[in-house]
Every structure is written in structure tokens, then in C-alpha cells.
Write a structure and sequence with these properties.
The protein is an alpha/beta fold. It has helices spanning about 10-20, 40-45, 60-65, 105-110, 145-165, 170-175, 200-210, and strands spanning about 1-5, 25-30, 50, 70-75, 90-95, 115-120, 130-135, 215-220, 225-230, 230-235, 245-250, 250-255, 260-265, 270.
Length: about 280
């Protein structure tokens, strides 16, 4: 079966699975932003698969269909596909639809673990609104972060994909419509939600790290704003001025916060360009 694949790193294992199972992946469309598709590009390089970073047009997708492509697989892709006459088209989504429609549901699932899971659904004109082909929930442990949720989503997605592709026609024809009245849309969190103040307490910092640590939270050090992806938070009674540097060596810098302190790994600090906040 000839396939077009649309996706980035989150579900890159699904691309590897399809290649290893002998599917003819004719091309892969990616969102090539900030290493977002680095693993997918590596896989395509190994298997000599063409990649496209521009938004696909209906005309080029129609050309692929004319050449014999019968399946579109979308997995962690940032663009909506034009509607075509493709035989099969489905999206792999990291929430229990119809809850959690939208681009980044995992940041919300940290707080809403009852909707943790993976759904594979038909692609329609409605974003994340197509009929459900397969769906399965997974458990979220106490204090899990978005990083561990990404791993669980990825592993479950591959398992569901294998089940689906083993009996694609039957499952596709028996898909279950989503209950529109239960649908929720979770918009992409704004950059402002990732900005932390040293007035925030240790619990608030830990929650921010759980939700956004994989992407980095924003903190002020030496009066400059940094994105930081690696930091630890400790409870500690002190009288230091909030935001003051209380320890530093060649690898770490520690800052006093409300109710404790943060230990920041210097290797993860990236100075923020003002354009990021606009």
C-alpha cells in the first residue's frame, strides 16, 4: 500500500513501524521548526524517503493519489490537510476524543488525567472531529510530567496503529461518530502561561515544570529572561531576597523563590529573544 505520512517527532515511532512493515511511504510532510521533526528527518534519511516542509496543496496531494497513494496518515502535524478523494485518511491524536480536540492536549492532561489516551480518527473538514477508528486510555501516575505522557502516548499509538493496519478496511467501515455535545477544544497555551515569577511558590513551579518543562519555562536570572528546560525545585525556609542568586558554579545556578529555591542547569538556559513574546 502506498502512503503519504504527515507528522513530527511525537509519533515518529509510527513512521518507523510502517516502514518496517513494508508500507511504501512515498513522501513525508513535516513542520520543520526548532528540531520539531529532527527524528522524522533522520528516519527519512535512512530509508531515502522524500520530505516536504511546506504546507501541502490539494493539487500535489491529488497527484500522489493519481500515482496510487491510497492512505494518508497524520500524526502530530501542524497543518490541516485539504479535502481530497483519498481512500483512507486518519489522524493519531493524544487524548480521548471528543475531549481535548486541539494542537497540544498533553499540557492539559497533566491536570485532566481522566482524558489521557490515544484516539485514531478519520480526517474530515472538522478539526479532530472525524469518526473514531480506535481509542484507548492509559493511566497517569502522581506527579507525572508532559514528558512521560509523551512517551506513553507514543507507545500506545504504535500499538493501536498496528491493530488498525492489520484490518484497515473493516475498522474503517465500522468507525464510531464522535458525540459532538461532549466535545471540548483545548487551544495551544500562550507563551505567557510558561512565564514564572520568583514570587510563585515551589508548588506552582513544580506544576509548571510538569506541564511545560519539556518545552521550557521562562524565568528571569540576572535581569534577563531565559527559557529553561532543566531545573529542580526544593522546599527550604530562608530569608533571601526572592530572585537573588544564592549559589553558582560552572554547571548550576540557584535562585531563591517563595518557600524554597530553584536549581537551574546552565546547559539548558537559552536567552529569550523579545520576538518570542510578541
Amino acid at each position: 500500500m502506498k502512503v503519504l505520512y504527515f507528522g513530527n517527532n511525537l509519533f515518529s515511532n509510527c513512521l518507523t513501524f510502517m516502514v518496517n512493515q513494508g508500507f511504501s511511504v512515498e513522501a513525508v510532510y513535516i513542520n520543520d521548526v526548532e528540531e520539531n521533526a529532527s527524528i522524522v528527518k533522520r528516519i527519512c534519511g535512512i530509508h531515502k524517503i522524500m520530505t516536504h516542509s511546506l504546507r501541502p496543496t490539494k493539487e500535489e496531494l491529488d497527484e500522489y493519489i493519481k500515482s496510487g497513494v491510497t492512505l494518508f496518515v497524520v500524526a502530530d502535524y501542524g497543518y490541516r490537510l485539504p479535502i481530497t478523494d483519498i481512500k483512507y485518511a486518519f489522524n493519531i491524536h493524544p487524548s480521548l476524543l471528543p475531549k481535548g480536540r486541539g494542537p497540544t492536549p498533553l499540557t492539559y492532561i497533566v491536570d485532566l488525567p481522566e482524558f489521557a489516551g490515544v484516539s485514531i480518527h478519520k480526517i474530515t473538514y472538522m478539526l479532530d472531529g472525524g469518526d473514531i477508528l480506535l481509542q484507548e486510555q492509559f493511566e497517569v501516575g502522581q506527579n507525572e510530567s508532559i514528558s512521560s505522557l509523551m512517551v506513553k502516548s507514543s507507545l500506545l499509538a504504535e500499538s493501536l496503529l498496528q491493530t488498525l493496519l492489520n484490518d484497515l478496511e473493516t475498522i474503517y467501515e465500522s468507525a464510531t461518530p464522535q458525540q459532538k455535545r461532549l466535545a471540548t477544544y483545548w487551544k495551544q497555551p500562550s507563551i505567557e502561561r510558561r512565564i514564572m515569577s520568583w514570587l510563585n511558590d515551589t508548588q506552582q513551579f513544580r506544576q509548571a515544570i510538569r506541564q511545560y518543562g519539556h518545552f521550557g519555562i521562562l524565568i528571569t536570572i540576572y535581569e534577563e529572561l531565559f527559557i529553561v528546560s532543566q531545573l529542580e525545585v526544593a522546599d527550604f525556609k530562608h530569608d533571601y531576597k526572592l530572585g537573588s542568586i544564592i549559589f553558582e558554579d560552572q554547571a548550576l545556578i540557584s535562585v531563591a523563590m517563595n518557600g524554597g529555591f530553584a536549581v537551574v542547569f546552565k546547559s539548558s538556559m537559552v536567552l529569550v529573544n523579545s520576538a518570542v513574546l510578541e
